[in-house]
């Protein structure tokens, strides 16, 4: 398929209607009610980052949709560990340990969830050190929390006009039906997984980048909107520049949740060094757009440019730099 075959307007409309993006709108109301935005720790990053000694303590938690846990409990358990690790790595950190909260109907109901968590913890080399268990309930539910440490942060608040937007995604995988999860980890060698985790901390510590975010349920576009809103910038995404695995459609890929996927906002002078870090680990990485002044997040094919969201007029998380305490 060439860009001439892409209906850019239809693609934009589908992205605007994405449930994965819409769900991020709930974040602002919840944090406001909790009073979190009144605290000294900025909200909107992948982890809470607490200054601690010569670095930062990172703390994050993920909860999972009941339908996902019911449909694929082993993989839900795996993801409980994996996505928390991704949150730590996205901020330039290294994971230390995880804890979990599991609800299930009996030991048999809990077993695949627990087995999936254990498999991921062993593969990534990040221990499960405790948690909470209730196996006397009528449905499976799962949440997992993590702690980690960073010497130097990558944040959602430091993308700057003039940067280029880099997408780095491990293409060595496949979709795990029935959801749009690109699964490139469960059969990967453990040493490869652990080595890949160190790419972003090394980039942060080398001063090659200040801003990054892991690609989550909102896909590349939703993650770009969140990054742009937190940093108070606009982003133009060149859809033809986005590398995709063979046989995957553009509209599906833009909404995909990859097991290893990050957006980085990088100064042009550093971009080759950043791309080389990923290439050295056989991770697909490319410049897919530009960070601009303003507040518009748009897709373009070089000749056409269509707005997806203007976070100044239609905030997504309501956690931009004017509302945030950073």
Number of domains: 2
Strand content: 25-35%
User: What's the number of helices?
Assistant: 11
Mass-distribution shape: globular
CATH class of the largest domain: Alpha Beta
Low-confidence stretches: 322-326
CATH topology of the largest domain: Phosphoribosyl-aminoimidazole Synthetase, Chain A, domain 2
Secondary-structure element pattern, one letter each? HHHEEHHEHEEEEEHHEHEHEEHEEE
**End-to-end distance:** 43 Å
Strand order within the widest sheet?
9-12-6-13-10-14-15
The named CATH superfamily of the largest domain: PurM-like C-terminal domain
> Which oligomeric form is depicted?
single chain
**Category from helices, strands and their pairing:** alpha+beta
- The mean pLDDT is 90
- By DSSP, the count of extended strands is 15
Radius of gyration: 19 Å
Give the name of the CATH architecture of the largest domain.
Alpha-Beta Complex
Q: Percent range for helical residues? A: 25-40%
